[in-house]
Amino acid sequence: MLAKLNNPRNVAHDVKWKRVVPPVLGVVIVVLIMVIGSVTPLVSILNPSRGVIQNSRNLVIGNQTYDLSGLQNSVNIIQDSNGVYHIYAQSAADLYYALGFIQAKNRLFQIEVFGFEGMGQMSTFFGSSYQNYDRFQTMTGAPLTAMSDWSTVLSDRSTNSTDATTATALLSYAQGVNSYINYSESHNTLPLLFKLLGVQPYYWTPVYSYAVQEVMAQTLEFGDTGLQFSLIYSMIGNATYNLIPTFSPVQSYYYDGYSGAPNATVLAE
């Protein structure tokens, strides 16, 4: 049998390196991730101070206190067992400020996408593939309508109490959203999708709130029926009204259990 003799000095040297290499290798890997992450958005989510780990800490819900500039008085926000937030404030301005802050904390990327969608600026986040959509949205007049609506509120708020209330609500809400943007940037807790796309959030303004209103209106009732009707009318004139009645001759009821009598058209048939 062959016996292998080891020099005690070499054995000690090997043990020393086995102890040193893992931590050194770990430090090198972390440094590489941080350097590469600053250049590549996809890899940046691995950055220990800015990536997934930091975002996961922001998901922990507990008793938290924020020192926010812009609030007139302290505001309490309570989240119940169903995840619903209850805001207790001493003024309408503080209430809407808190609403903007907490909504941004939970849905910043979503509301910013909605804002860009309404203003025809989606390509800012998602690249040139959205330029046609942005062009279409601009042609619908949604951005112009949003700017016009806010301009009207600003000009009339001194004489119209409803516009004054609206202006206070929208300005305070925007301030709350922007306050969270500043907070999340300083604490490296921007939503993960911003990091994946390599984009920065934009500051909210009341115009974007009106732009979201335009998006919701389009979602509920936008269609090309009017365009089709106009095209047919240009070809056959007033006969269009006989071919496609503006209102259906058959009465429709939108909920079960309606006991009203049928209209005259149905009875005649």
Automatic annotation (TrEMBL):
PANTHER family assigned to the protein according to its UniProt record, in alphabetical order: ACYL-HOMOSERINE LACTONE ACYLASE QUIP, PEPTIDASE S45 PENICILLIN AMIDASE
EC numbers on record: 3.5.1.-
Molecular function GO terms recorded: hydrolase activity, acting on carbon-nitrogen (but not peptide) bonds, in linear amides
Family per record: Belongs to the peptidase S45 family.
InterPro entries noted in UniProt: Ntn_hydrolases_N, Penicillin_amidase_dom1, S45
Protein name as catalogued: Peptidase S45, penicillin amidase
GO biological process, alphabetically ordered: antibiotic biosynthetic process
Transmembrane residue ranges: 20-46
Alphabetized UniProt keyword annotations: Hydrolase, Membrane, Transmembrane, Transmembrane helix
Organism classification: unclassified sequences, metagenomes, ecological metagenomes
